[in-house]
Design brief:
homodimer, three-stranded mixed beta sheet, two-stranded antiparallel ribbon, 18% strand, DNA-binding
Chain lengths: 163, 163
DNA sequence: CTGAATATGTTATAATGTTTCAAATTTTTT
DNA sequence: AAAAAATTTGAAACATTATAACATATTCAG
């Protein structure tokens, strides 16, 4: 497996997913957090897509599992997963995506392709540094950064129309 | 008037608002865009708060004007104002705020105080540069950046509880 | 085992945003 | 100025996203 998977390049995504689940189990164990079946299933569903999944998309998937869940079930699971750094919420899309840097302390930055919908998460220390500098130079104490870049991924620049 | 108003410092905000409206009229004229009464009123309402206003907050204000508007009226006005760079949408809050750099080409960056709710818009060229670099180094063509920092403004760090 | 804490189920509802089509207004053209 | 075209607004219904409140079940700690 490469150091970092690139969503818009073909790769064995099942491996990504199962690795993410393994990581999650390990992380939760370390933090004494309970990765219950529902939470794990929600994480799995989110990971199975490189495109962010809305809460109601997750809900629909659960329904097709035969699990007749209500919205709070999903939102609770998502809250849990967010709090433990296993998924990120993309504010500009009202959707969620698996964190590719789970366990590492990081400030995510998301490249969102408006054509194919895929999202790449980056950690760009130089960006974080500049953001922090800009904030502190205004006397502002930064706690949480939302950084989402919409545009075109390399693949969609070349040949538009990918889904 | 100082070069840049600081929301969490006292200042003559009425002057801010009327200047913003003057600017808006000028900008729209230059762009052959129609700043109709509704649009202007929505802009005014948004400017009267340093805190971002939700679409339904605007709707409520219009209602107390006696203007019985429906949601699409507000959303259309907000779309117009956004398209002409007069307001920004804060994705992490589902809310809108007057643009303090209207007319200037810029990439906004928002410092959002979680205690008092005030928002300061900055343009930090060094941040924009680093963001662009990070994106292009992934072959990504950036079009639109959402950059929102939640935290504590100077005033709320010192004495909490401001509204 | 028992009580406390945590997690889930369930119903209802709130908050945010859009679709659609009709009517009015403004602009452009004739 | 009148007609045609484009733009803006009105209005009703609906879609999507998210939360509140309370009951039940499960897990954990002593």
């Amino acid at each position: 497996m490469p150091a970092r998977a690139i969503p818009y390049r073909p790769h064995n995504h099942d491996a990504c997913v199962s690795q993410a689940l393994d990581d999650a189990r390990r992380i939760c164990q370390r933090q004494n957090a309970r990765l219950t079946p529902i939470r794990e299933r929600v994480l799995e569903l989110i990971w199975q897509s490189h495109k962010p999944l809305g809460a109601y998309d997750v809900l629909a998937e659960l329904a097709s599992d035969g699990h007749n869940a209500a919205p709070p079930t999903v939102y609770r699971a998502l809250d849990f997963l967010q709090q433990h750094g296993l998924v990120h919420r993309i504010a500009s899309l009202n959707a969620f995506i698996g964190c590719t840097h789970a366990g590492q302390s990081h400030t995510g930055m998301f490249l969102i392709c408006r054509a194919c919908g895929n999202v790449l998460e980056l950690t760009a220390p130089s960006v974080s540094t500049e953001v922090r500098r800009a904030a502190t130079s205004e006397g502002f104490q930064a706690e949480d950064t939302t950084l989402e870049i919409a545009g075109l991924c390399p693949r969609c620049q070349a040949e538009p129309g990918h889904e």
